[in-house]
Design a protein that fits this description.
Chain A has about 400 residues and is an alpha/beta fold. Chain A has 14 helices and 17 strands. Chain B has a three-stranded antiparallel beta sheet with strand order 1-2-3. Classes of the chains: A alpha/beta (about 400), B alpha+beta (about 140). Bound molecules: pyridoxal-5'-phosphate. The site of pyridoxal-5'-phosphate has 13 residues of chain A, from helix 4.
Chain lengths: ~400, ~140
């Protein structure tokens, strides 16, 4: 592989990568589900609890000040990471799922009425389907779906045609968690904006694989999860343009998100606090910032380039296996490969790969409508991170070949 | 043969395998040679929807004994089904209700009956007992 990254040194930052499963070295290819954590992220969590734990925004005491500053600094780190214009446009959530639910609820309540349309695509994760269905049940909106072609690329003509005067929001994955397709979100946003339609981008699979600039994209909302980007579980981000966030009502009520409360009337806090009811995850935010700094040390461009080489190598090698069927062959593709061999069931293949120490995901990957479109029940999915190696891919390919011969 | 005698026989057979590959190759063989369930029995009521694989289970009573037929879309699951049927099918409702399945554990396939596997097998075992209960109530 042609890279300036020192992969051996990077691997050493992730203690879990040197463990074994069933007495075999672990090959971790389930990064699209969650990534492993470098030591610095775990240490950041420990440091907060051991040195600066105090509830934030509440106390005048020293520790509370320190903790509050760390949390707000983390917000600025996230802001810089995706190049948001203002740190108040960064809302900490529990993850991608909560961020989409927040928008579906607060935006939906404000701007959507019966018969209005929300436009999603045929390759969304359930997290970008079900919240809109809940809105449909509450408000009688209509959910429209942009189809994709046999390579797993969005049908942009259909997209243009599906945009209508009734479309209130477009909500689309930046990268498909099943097929790896990198969707042309800049184009989607430009086209939707021509009709003043805002766009939410589900960046759960994107932020750890490519540089993301929300201003350059002109995204109205951009959401992602910490645990898929080497950060801790339980924290995520909703970026929203100030002009939208200002117009949306709070999602949850409670402490932290208010200005004044009387029994008659409550006024809400300014952004971002309006959307952060209750004690926020000020430990997770700090650790997430550490994960961002960790990635930035290498650069998202270098990370993405290396992962792309892994993807290409894995694709070439897997295709040598008789009966290999890869789902998703988009020209723009990130390091996710979904496949089946002949009609061997994904559970059978996954069970045996597991025995060989290879961690892949099997099943529908929380995208049952997508599976339905592909006419299958599930796939085996190998997804790579920048700590993975060519040798691990060789191990995967050898294992898949060995297993397929058993059927 | 009683349920426990069959269980012991299966354990004996599996003790021949020195590594897991052989064991799974055998399960695949068993799965491939499992009698398919009657197409007419592949109805939603007989479907046990696991997250990873699906299992169809049907039961009939014959001379006071319960006969099970089952199938899955995954071959390894079918292999385990074949063992479960061999052990449980053709016994009276009382025998089935009293049976304690220890062979799965002993042949090292316990993980496949864990609730986190979501392959439909655990629900299948529960369903086998429910069928026995239903036939018992009828008689
Ligand atoms: C594209 C996409 N969207 C949303 C999610 C949901 O993320 P989370 O479970 O962290 O909220 C995932 C991850 O599973 C995903 O891949």
């Amino acid at each position: 592989m042609d890279t300036t990254l020192d992969i051996a040194a990077i691997r050493a930052d992730f203690p879990i990568l040197s463990r074994t499963v069933y007495d075999r070295p672990l090959v971790y290819f389930d990064n699209a589900a969650t990534s492993q954590k470098p030591r610095c992220v775990v240490e950041a969590i420990e440091k907060v609890y051991y040195n600066q734990n105090a509830n934030i925004h509440r106390g005048v005491h020293y520790l509370s000040q320190v903790a509050t500053e760390a949390h707000e600094e983390a917000r600025q780190t996230v802001q810089a990471f995706i190049n948001a214009a203002e740190s108040r446009e960064i809302i900490f959530t529990r993850g991608t799922t909560e961020a989409i639910n927040l928008v579906a609820t607060s935006f939906g309540e404000t701007f959507c009425n019966e018969g209005d349309e929300i436009l999603i695509t045929g390759m969304e994760h359930h997290a970008n389907i079900v919240p809109w269905q809940l809105l449909r049940d509450r408000k009688g909106i209509v959910l429209k779906v942009v189809p994709f072609n046999e390579r797993g690329e969005l049908d942009m003509e259909a997209f243009s045609q599906l945009l209508s005067p009734k479309t209130k929001l477009v909500s689309v994955a930046h990268i498909s968690n099943v097929m790896g397709t990198v969707n042309p979100v800049a184009k989607i946003i430009a086209e939707a904006h021509a009709y003043n339609i805002p766009v939410l981008v589900d960046g759960a699979q994107a932020v750890s694989h490519m540089p993301v600039d929300v201003q350059a994209l002109d995204a109205d909302f951009y959401v992602f999860s910490g645990h898929k980007m080497y950060g801790p579980n339980g924290i995520g981000v909703l970026y929203g343009k100030e002009k939208w966030l200002e117009q949306l009502p709070p999602y949850h009520g409670g402490g932290e998100m208010i200005a004044t409360v009387t029994y008659e009337k409550t006024t809400y806090a300014e952004l971002p606090f309006k959307f952060e009811a209750g004690t926020p995850d000020y430990v997770g935010s700090v650790a997430l910032a550490e994960a961002i700094r960790y990635m930035q040390k290498f650069g998202l461009k270098a990370i993405g380039d290396y992962e792309h080489q892994l993807l290409q190598y894995a694709t070439e090698q897997l295709m040598k296996i008789d009966g290999m069927r890869i789902f998703g062959t988009a020209a723009e593709k990130a390091s996710v490969i979904s496949f089946l061999v002949r009609d061997i069931h994904h559970f059978d293949m996954g069970t045996l790969l597991d025995k060989l120490g290879i961690a892949v995901r099997t099943g529908h990957h929380c995208a049952m409508p997508l599976m339905h479109t592909l006419g299958i029940e599930g796939t085996i999915r190998a997804s790579f991170a920048f700590y993975n190696t060519k040798e691990e891919i060789d191990a995967l390919v050898a294992a898949v070949d060995r297993v397929q011969k058993m059927f | 043969m009683t349920i426990n005698e069959t269980q012991d026989q299966v354990i004996e057979e599996f003790s021949e395998f020195s590594d897991w590959m052989d064991k799974y190759a055998y399960l695949i063989d068993l799965g491939n040679s499992l009698d398919p369930i009657d197409e007419k029995a592949k109805i939603p009521q007989n479907l046990i929807e696991g997250c990873q694989s699906r299992v169809w289970l049907d039961a009939a009573e014959n001379d006071g004994k319960v006969v099970f037929t089952a199938e899955s879309d995954a071959v390894i699951v079918k292999g385990i089904i074949s063992l479960l049927i061999r052990v449980m099918s053709g016994h009276t409702p009382d025998e089935i209700l009293e049976a304690e399945l220890y062979f799965i554990d002993q042949i090292g396939l316990k993980e496949h009956l864990s609730p986190t596997r979501a392959n439909g097998l655990l629900s299948m075992v529960k369903q086998i007992k429910l069928y026995a209960l239903a036939f018992k109530a009828k008689s």
